[in-house]
Amino acid sequence: MAKKRRSKKSQKQMKKVVSLILGLIFVIAVGFFGVESGFIGGDSSLVPLVTDEKAFSMHVIDMGQGDALLLSKDGKYALIDAGETMSPSERESREAIFAYLDSLGVKKLEFMLLTHQDYDHIGSAIDVLKRYDVGTVYDNGVEHTSKTYENLMLYLLEEDVDYKIVRDGDRISSPWSGVTIEVLSPPQDLIYSGKKADVNENSIVLKITYGDVSYLLTGDAEDKAEEYILSTAANIDADILKAGHHGSSSSSTMDFLYRVTPDVVVISCGEDNDYGHPHIEPLRNFAKFTTADKTFRTDIDGDVVVTTDGSEYSVKIRNSPHDASKIFISGNGVKV
Known about the structure:
By secondary structure, the chain is of the alpha/beta class. It has helices spanning 8-32, 90-103, 119-122, 125-131, 147-158, 223-231, 254-260, 280-287, 298-301; strands at residues 38-40, 56-60, 69-73, 76-80, 108-113, 133-139, 162-165, 179-185, 192-193, 196-197, 205-210, 213-217, 240-242, 264-267, 295-297, 304-308, 313-317.
């Protein structure tokens, strides 16, 4: 519908009114969404769920059937994966990432780490690089022939973007005081399925620690990667687990979870996705370590943010209230 053109004076008055309204909304939002201890709901509008910049936060962005995790502290940001999904659409998932980052006023990403080469983890990477000032791009260096990955590598080369390969034993240079970022997998010589390096199994697995609180981020790592990590001397005990492979039955084995002992589990998956994620097997496993009150899914909860001051941690969600009765039901309707 065409809009009537306003006079310049009228436009200025309208802008002032809108600015005042937005200012009031922001003040109310800050007061309502301040960091608190416990498990607390969010709001349906896209306002920042956490406003304490001194705390460390993992934001699992609801972008459909894919992954995009924002890390934040001290007004500095980094992105783990920048996926796209065909459901509901590429553009909508990409815009969901942009809208989330923009809502926080993100202009610069200290780094962007791509756990592996699948489209639902790298599909928006070039667009992120074009839109934001990105410091370093990390990935696992696995050769991949998809056009999306080839275009990304070409873009990094042409634009002279700082690019580094990381594997087990490496550390990511942390932009945040008091925060350590360890790479636990893939192994230096990678994990193979036949003659090819397995894309999912070679996902970069990170342990991030701030004070007494640890996060384990597993990309699409599956049982072989979990077995490898268990074979090392790595301490993988973590308070918060970002579940592997969108809650697939190929990940989150009991042996692995026994070593992780997660208190909070977050699953990134799309509503009514074609894969039936999350599968019933990992949900049953999670239920042995934590409760539905402390298990979160982006298809149900929307954006999920887990924040810590280094001692205690809290969870906030976009879709309030958290409906625990839906959490331990698989994507194809099987209940734990």
